[in-house]
Amino acid sequence: MTDAVTSQGTPGTGYAPVPRVLFVHAHPDDETITTGGTLATLVDAGAEVVLLTATRGEGGEVIGEDLAHLFGDRPALAAHRETELAAAMRVLGVTDHRFLGDGPAGGAGDGRPSRRFEDSGMVWGEDGHAHAPDDMSADALCAATVTEVAAYIRAVMDEVRPHLVITYASGGGYGHPDHRRVHEATVEAFRVHRAKGPAAAHARLLFVDTPAEVARDAFDPQAPGFDLTGFDAVTDIPTIPAEAPLAVAQDVDPVLGRKALAMAAHATQISVSGHFFALSNGIGQKILDTEYFTDADHPGPAPAPWAPVDSVLAAIDPVAIEVERERPATAGPAIAAGAAAPAAAGTEAPTTTARAVAPGTDLPAAVRGARTDSASTTEPLPKVGPAAWLHAVIVSVLIAVLGSLQHLGATVVHPGGTPVVLPWGLGISLLLAGLALWHVATLYRSTVLVVGVGALVSILSFVLGQPSLLPGHDLVVTGGLRSIVWLFGPMVLAGVFAFTLPSLKPPHRETTDDPKADRP
C-alpha cells in the first residue's frame, strides 16, 4: 500500500486537488465484479483510488479441484485470496489497497485495536437472495455492531478525505449479509465524516446499483456466445435491482479486457469464459461493460440535480474541489509540481506525478493533467498452462482432419451453359477453422495460443498430403488451388483474429489529453 497523493501543485497559484475516490467492499472479488471497470478507468484518468476491503473471504466456496483443498480451511483460504486480490489490483492499476482494521491504514488507532474482520458466510433464502447463516465466527463482520465497523471505516475516510465514496446499495447486490453490513457501516461512517469540514461536507456517497433490465440482460442464456461457455442458465435472477434513480452509468468498455483479466485472477471464486463469468454456483452472466451507481442523497423519485452523468468523475461536487483550492492548508500535504509523491516506508512510490493546475480549471481537465506517460502500465496477458495447450492440440487435430477430408467437396453448376465450380467444401472447412480459432481466443484470451492453433492445423494438413507417409495421402490434400487455400487459410485467419478480436487486444491503452480520444 502507498500513501495517497492528496493534491497537485503547491498552495496558492496553481494549486488543485487530485480527485480522490474511496471504494468500500466486503470480500476480495467484489471490487472487480461490481466496480472493476470503474477502478481501472479512474486510475487511467489520474485519480487517487483507495480500495478498502472488509474481510478476506474466509467463508467463500472454492472453484476447481486444484484449489479444493482450501475449502473449509479459513486461514489458508484467506491467505490465498489475499494473493488473488493483489494480482487483480495489479491488473487494474490500483496501488492503495487496505483491509479493514489492519493497522492504522485500516482504521485502527485512537482506541480502536488492530483486528481482522472475517467473512460471515451466507445461506440462500426462499426468496432467492442471500441471508446470514445461523452461526458464524466470533470475528465475523456481521458479529460486530454497525457502530464498531463504522468507526474503522470513518477513520479511513478521515485520512483519505475522499471526494467520492462508493459502496453497495442497501440490498447488497444479491443480499449477502456482509454486503449489507458494509453498506450500513459506510453510510454511518460517511454521515459522521461529513461533519469534519467544508470539503468533507461536499463529499458524495454513491451506491453500486444495477437496474432490473440490465440484470435480466446479464443473465440472458440466449446471449450470443453463452452456449459455448458451459455455464448453467439462471432460473431465478438473484440481483436486487436498483430502486433509486440512476446517477452514473460508467462506460467501462475501453477497459473491459482488464476487468476480465482481474476477475480471472480471483480463480477460487470466478470462472471466466469470453465475455461471461460464473461464480461457484456455475450460473453464467455477462461481464458488464457499464457499471451503474445511485446517489445516497437522492433515493428518489427525483434524481440528483447533477444526474444522470456518464462518468464517476462527473459525480464529484465541484464545490469540494473549490473549497480545497481556497483552503489548501486543510486539504492535506501538497506535492510540488513535477515531484513524485512520497511512498510509505517499505513500499514502492506511486506511479503518478503531480502537475500544477491553474485555478478555475474544470475538474475533468485537472484530472487529465495529472496523468503522465510514466503512469501508463502494460499488464501482460496471463500465461497459458499445459491444459490449455493440450486442448488447443486436440482442437487442431480435429479441424485438420475434418477440414482436409472436406475441403475438396464441390458442386458444378452451369449458369448460361458455362460450368462454374462451387467450392462448398472449402467454405465449410474454413468456417470450421474460424470457429475453432474463435473458441480458443475467447476461452483463453491468448494470441500465442490462437496463432499456434492456426499454424498446427496448417502443418497437420500438409502432413496429410504427403504420399511418402501412406500411399494415397496426396488424394486427400492435392496440389490444386483449393488445397493451397486450405493449407494457408487457417494461418491467415489466426493472424486476422489476433489483430481484430477484442478478447485478444492487450489491456494497455495509451493515455491522451482527451479521455475519449482512444475509444473505439
Automatic annotation (TrEMBL):
<keyword id="KW-0812">Transmembrane</keyword>
<feature type="transmembrane region" description="Helical">
    <location>
        <begin position="484"/>
        <end position="501"/>
    </location>
</feature>
<keyword id="KW-0862">Zinc</keyword>
<feature type="transmembrane region" description="Helical">
    <location>
        <begin position="447"/>
        <end position="464"/>
    </location>
</feature>
<keyword id="KW-1133">Transmembrane helix</keyword>
<feature type="transmembrane region" description="Helical">
    <location>
        <begin position="388"/>
        <end position="409"/>
    </location>
</feature>
<protein>
    <recommendedName>
        <fullName>N-acetyl-1-D-myo-inositol-2-amino-2-deoxy-alpha-D-glucopyranoside deacetylase</fullName>
    </recommendedName>
</protein>
<feature type="transmembrane region" description="Helical">
    <location>
        <begin position="421"/>
        <end position="440"/>
    </location>
</feature>
<dbReference type="Pfam" id="PF02585">
    <property type="entry name" value="PIG-L"/>
</dbReference>
<dbReference type="InterPro" id="IPR003737">
    <property type="entry name" value="GlcNAc_PI_deacetylase-related"/>
</dbReference>
<keyword id="KW-0472">Membrane</keyword>
<dbReference type="InterPro" id="IPR024078">
    <property type="entry name" value="LmbE-like_dom_sf"/>
</dbReference>
